[in-house]
Fold:
Amino acid sequence: MSDLFWLTDAQMARLAPFFPKSHGKPRVDDRRVPSRIIFINRNGLRWRDAPAAYGPHKTLYSRWKRWSEKGIFARMMAGLAAEHGEKATVMIPSRDITA
Structure:
């Protein structure tokens, strides 16, 4: 599938401070988790329907669930919004608005 979504190195650099530190065994590439979340939301897919290039759906779902429960994504969104002066509302477009 040629229309996979992958965060760029610059985007990953902005998100990296929000990722939890690895304890012991290195994690699967952190780029997969946010890239896959964006991909499945943009396309209205279930976890298991995303392309295999994003890794096993159970592994990525487990990471998403753990990070969600720990508030990683909430801190990520609040931190990114704060960089632009936003304090009350954080929104993610569900489609590509640059086209």
In short: The chain has one domain: 8-16+28-99. The chain is about 45% helix and 0% strand. Residues 40 and 49 are 8 Å apart (CA to CA). The helical segments are 9-15, 32-43, 57-69, 72-82.
